[in-house]
């Protein structure tokens, strides 16, 4: 069958099997490998992307169901060479280690801040509670999203964040109140 | 923060023009740039021209004889390119492969299947959906056999013999292994005023990295070169094993470990799927991709733990610990595939005396086969130190309960003192350094321990169940030395190469491979700390056997202790060479020069000197060099660690238990870690955070149980529960710094510390909460059901299905 949808602002049309999953469509057919597959059962959330502005777990959505809809993936977060504040926050707060859950986490986080620009930590935890991270223990993911909430324009310099451009406000130092002298 | 200055790393490194520390300190990660943009390159992201896709048919039975396999319908599928069975592999002498523990494992089953999910056939097709379709077309005639499920009954008279492939094998026994001295231990126990005995299970769990295992194999039919992209924590070891297994010439094998979506030990072993992808490529003359689904990952790849332990503590009535002994039944599954140094069939479990000053200790471990997936050493366990720490720290709490003594006080009284280091344990480990009482006291202070106990008393009066749990751990990480430790005969020492280009930019090549630990940043900082080259000017190359020196890889928290040391050594060699070159340029004697970070200069006259960047250009120039000094600025090293490093820590967990449902809520978690100087504190804290979440998960949620037919009950994320943001509290970290005396930078490995140390703290907290019910122990995971049963005095075995 033929399916047409808008992906990251571009209309795409492909011949597909009706049973093709959306995750495999974006990865294998469009080459957008930033969205990952992790579990098949909608538990891990590494496959989260947006469909018509809402985060969905694309391992349990058929590509055919996305026909006529608008898809946004992690590759679309960076705009005009500038990282989204969410991306900057994840870097500043060490919100990622292996990076595998990160695209899904960031897509949920972007949606959260679009709908609630100043969420409490409990709201942030609730928002990402359908997604696993095996590396970070979640604390720095929460901090990363909070950083983005506190920096809606990012670092504001208009420059992409690069290693070294450390923002002291996020320094862990993060743990300043928790790190203890002996 | 306490900072004990290490010899080479100034605590406050100067900043480069880019704002990075020239040396140790918080630095944002280099690797993040690609991950944040969705530009990582994980195994399933790899696409090659003409690439085919593979899938594995797996056994539905835990134990069954294979009467026949009919693949004709699958072969007739229009998109199928090859169907490979055990019979095909037998013809190639590839049906069995060696494990990392001197056993063999079936690549594809020939005679029997021995665990549910075992590999039976391999299909290569044009796309991943067609490969799965074809699996359905294979007809296998199985004759079910009685399975061995309960490890404690594996050695029973008349138990089904799992490994009848081994000539003369008449039981399910694998090994007996002992450490310590029985006689002295017996004497201590005979004389002791108090002896506490407790049975406990460290149930089977699984590291469950978010990315499953997989491989893309490409055997070039023209050049005969095999390129294999593999989710491997140890690419060099994998290459050597492929050469040995498949008889391929090692110089014609390139193993590339691309970005890895989490490892935690799951990606150390060599799995049948990796070998089959190679065979598939040889057969089809095309690149072949094989990637597990989640159930395959959870049901068939390296699991962790599965230790059935009986611990006994001897002590005086007033709380002096005297002796500890433990008997273990170790469930290794159907093939003994544990990944640990050869001389240590139970890993480093014999470090079970922990952090305490004892008079005697003894352990005996018996390994058995069961009809379960192979594995056992995985999941950030530091070669079974996880099990050892859990055992001793649970036993300490059991002893405290017996003596009616505060568990913090009991620990503080019996911890090794700083003046006892280096300390040799009764089972032979030489702890290199430590200040244990200070770390424990810091944790108690951060937690506000006395206040917590007061609050607990008040809550108990109101019928509320609040628990406070402690754990103190000593880790031993950074294997070798090579004379004591090897994997399949390969000594555990790791190479490193460093080259400074003419313009002063450097490339460092490592044998180890990151799975999220941030090596591209940390190793640049190590080299930077020794040479003064900004870390942004240092490129880290790893994960490709054609591009890096040989070494054993990343697991057991060995990267910083071994390869980190290797990187420091090569950088110092480059620095020494730079001194000679500077002296030649300045026409002085090398001994007249002194090192100021990034620069050799004349003693007493700092205006005369050369920066490392200037030296790099001189090294490649026409400058006349002294006799015997070669041009260019590079060095290599193989680092053979003289001993393990011994990080340690004190953890305190506070929980609230719902008396109606048994649900446990982790309210607080305080973790004081001492891993020596921290190269990048941000990364170290991230490593600790992740391990603490593991501890909460294992203690409360994660276990892979089996029913009486050997069906795996943890085969999906709907059944095998992992902690989310809702189960994890905000971690409260503290730090002490006790440098390792033998590591060039004083650093100790930290990647697994929190996974090793935290489960006992959580369980101790829950058992503390349940104290009013008079229950002393219940096995992990402490699910609401298990806690509810424990409150009624009847906790169950968590490794078996509740029937």
Q: What does the model show?
A:
The complex is a heterodimer of chains A (182) and B (803). Chain A is of the alpha+beta class. In chain A, a hairpin with a 2-residue loop joins strand 3 and strand 4. The N and C termini of chain A lie far apart (67 Å). Chain B is of the alpha+beta class and 803 residues long. Helix content of chain B is 26%, strand content 24%. In chain B, the strands form ten sheets. Chain B has a seven-stranded mixed sheet with strand order 3-7-1-14-11-12-13. Chain B has a five-stranded mixed sheet with strand order 9-18-17-16-10, sandwiched between helices. A four-stranded mixed sheet of chain B has the order 22-32-33-34, with helices on both faces. In chain B, strand 20 and strand 21 form a beta hairpin. In chain B, helix 13 packs parallel to helix 14, helix 14 crosses helix 15 and helix 16 packs across helix 17. Classes of the chains: A alpha+beta (182), B alpha+beta (803). At the A-B interface, helix 1, helix 2, helix 3, helix 4 and helix 5 of A face helix 1, helix 11, helix 16 and strand 34 of B.
- Quick one: overall form of chain B? globular
Largest sheet of chain B: 7 strands, mixed
| Rounded Rg of chain A | 17 Å
Task: Provide the low-confidence segments of chain A as ranges.
Answer: 157-161, 164-182
Share of helix among residues of chain A? 25-40%
Spatial strand sequence of the major β-sheet of chain B: 3-7-1-14-11-12-13
Mean pLDDT of chain A: 90
* Cα end-to-end separation of chain B: 52 Å
Number of helices of chain A: 5
**Share of β-strand residues of chain B:** 15-25%
Order of helices and strands of chain A: EEHEEEHHHH
Major β-sheet of chain A, in short? 5 strands, mixed
Proportion in helices of chain B? 25-40%
């Amino acid at each position: 069958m033929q399916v047409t949808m808008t992906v990251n602002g571009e209309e795409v049309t492909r011949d597909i099997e009706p049973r093709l999953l959306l995750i495999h469509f974006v990865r294998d057919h469009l080459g957008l490998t930033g969205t990952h597959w992790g579990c098949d059962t909608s538990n891990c959330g590494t496959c989260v992307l947006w469909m018509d502005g809402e985060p969905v777990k694309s391992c349990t959505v058929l590509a055919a169901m996305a026909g006529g809809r608008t898809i946004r993936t992690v590759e679309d977060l960076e705009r005009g060479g500038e990282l989204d504040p969410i991306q900057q926050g994840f870097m500043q707060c060490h919100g990622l280690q292996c990076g595998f859950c990160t695209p899904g986490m960031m897509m949920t986080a972007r949606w959260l801040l679009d709908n609630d620009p100043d969420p409490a930590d409990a709201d942030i935890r609730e928002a990402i509670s359908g997604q696993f991270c095996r590396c970070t223990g979640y604390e720095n993911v929460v901090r990363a999203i909070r950083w983005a909430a506190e920096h809606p324009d990012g670092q504001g310099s208009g420059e992409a964040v690069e290693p070294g451009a450390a923002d002291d406000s996020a320094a862990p130092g993060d743990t300043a109140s928790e790190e203890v002298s002996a | 923060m306490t900072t004990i200055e290490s010899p080479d790393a100034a605590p406050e490194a100067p900043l480069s023009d880019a704002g990075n520390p020239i040396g140790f300190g918080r630095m944002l990660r280099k690797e993040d740039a690609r991950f944040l943009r969705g530009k990582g390159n994980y195994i399933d992201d790899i696409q090659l021209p003409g690439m085919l896709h593979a899938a594995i048919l797996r056994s539905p039975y835990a134990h069954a004889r294979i009467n026949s396999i009919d693949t004709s319908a699958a072969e007739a599928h229009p998109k199928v390119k090859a169907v490979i069975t055990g019979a095909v592999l037998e013809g190639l002498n590839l049906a069995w492969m060696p494990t990392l523990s001197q056993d063999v494992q079936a690549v594809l089953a020939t005679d029997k299947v021995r665990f549910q999910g075992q590999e039976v056939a391999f299909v290569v097709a044009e796309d991943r959906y067609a490969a799965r379709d074809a699996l359905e077309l294979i007809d296998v005639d199985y004759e079910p056999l009685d399975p061995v499920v309960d490890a404690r009954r594996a050695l029973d008279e008349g138990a089904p013999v799992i490994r009848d492939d081994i000539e003369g094998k008449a039981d399910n026994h694998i090994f007996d292994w002992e450490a310590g001295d029985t006689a002295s231990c017996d004497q201590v126990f005979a004389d002791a005023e108090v002896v506490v005995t407790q049975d406990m299970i460290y149930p089977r769990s699984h590291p469950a990295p978010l990315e499953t295992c997989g491989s893309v194999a490409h055997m070039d039919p023209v050049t005969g070169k095999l390129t294999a992209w593999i989710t491997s924590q140890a690419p060099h070891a994998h290459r050597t094993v492929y050469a040995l297994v498949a008889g391929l010439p090692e110089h014609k094998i390139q193993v590339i470990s691309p970005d890895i979506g989490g490892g935690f030990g799951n990606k150390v072993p060599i799995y049948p799927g990796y070998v089959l992808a190679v065979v598939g490529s040889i057969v089809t003359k095309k690149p072949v991709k094989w990637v597990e689904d989640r159930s395959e990952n959870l049901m068939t790849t390296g699991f962790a733990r599965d230790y059935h332990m009986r611990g006994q503590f001897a002590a005086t009535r007033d709380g002096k610990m005297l002796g500890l002994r433990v008997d273990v039944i170790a469930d290794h599954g159907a093939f003994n595939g544990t990944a640990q140094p050869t001389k240590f069939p139970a890993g480093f479990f014999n470090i079970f005396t922990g952090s305490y000053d004892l008079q005697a200790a003894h352990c005996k471990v018996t390994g058995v086969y069961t009809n379960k997936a192979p594995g056992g050493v995985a999941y950030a366990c530091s070669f079974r130190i996880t099990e050892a720490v859990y055992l001793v720290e649970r036993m300490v709490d059991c002893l405290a309960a017996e003596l009616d003594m505060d568990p913090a006080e009991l620990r503080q009284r019996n911890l090794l003192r700083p003046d006892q280091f280096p300390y040799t344990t009764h089972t032979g480990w030489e702890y290199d350094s430590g200040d244990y009482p200070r770390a424990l006291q810091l944790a108690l202070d951060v937690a506000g321990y006395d206040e917590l106990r007061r609050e607990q008393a008040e809550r108990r009066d109101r019928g509320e169940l609040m628990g406070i749990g402690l754990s103190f751990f000593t880790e031993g990480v950074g294997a070798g030395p090579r004379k004591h430790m090897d994997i399949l005969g390969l000594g555990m020492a790791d190479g490193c190469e460093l080259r400074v280009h003419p313009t002063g930019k450097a490339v460092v090549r490592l044998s180890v491979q990151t799975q999220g630990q941030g090596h591209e940043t940390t190793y640049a900082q190590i080299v930077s700390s020794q040479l003064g080259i900004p870390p942004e000017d240092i490129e880290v190359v790893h994960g490709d056997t054609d591009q890096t020196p040989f070494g054993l890889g990343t697991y057991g928290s060995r990267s910083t202790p071994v390869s980190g040391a290797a990187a420091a050594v090569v950088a110092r060699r480059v620095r020494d060479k730079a001194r000679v070159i500077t002296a030649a340029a300045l026409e002085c004697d090398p001994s007249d020069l002194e090192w100021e970070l990034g620069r050799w200069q004349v003693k007493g006259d700092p205006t005369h000197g050369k920066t490392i960047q200037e030296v790099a250009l001189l090294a490649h120039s026409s400058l006349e060099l002294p006799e015997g000094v070669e041009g260019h600025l590079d060095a290599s090293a193989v680092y053979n660690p003289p001993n393990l490093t011994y990080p340690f820590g004190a953890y305190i967990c506070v929980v609230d238990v719902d008396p109606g449902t048994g649900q446990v809520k982790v309210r607080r978690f305080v973790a004081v870690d001492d891993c020596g100087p921290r190269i990048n504190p941000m990364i170290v804290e991230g490593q600790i955070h992740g391990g603490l979440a593991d501890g909460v998960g294992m203690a409360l949620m994660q276990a892979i149980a089996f029913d009486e037919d050997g069906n795996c009950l943890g085969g999906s994320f709907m059944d095998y529960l992992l902690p989310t943001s809702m189960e994890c509290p905000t971690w409260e970290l503290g730090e002490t710094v006790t440098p390792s005396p033998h590591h060039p930078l004083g650093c100790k490995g930290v990647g697994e510390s929190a996974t090793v140390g935290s489960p006992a703290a959580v369980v101790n907290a829950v058992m503390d909460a349940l104290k009013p019910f008079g229950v002393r122990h219940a096995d992990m995971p402490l699910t609401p059901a298990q806690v509810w049963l424990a409150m009624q005095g009847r906790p169950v075995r968590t490794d078996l299905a509740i029937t």
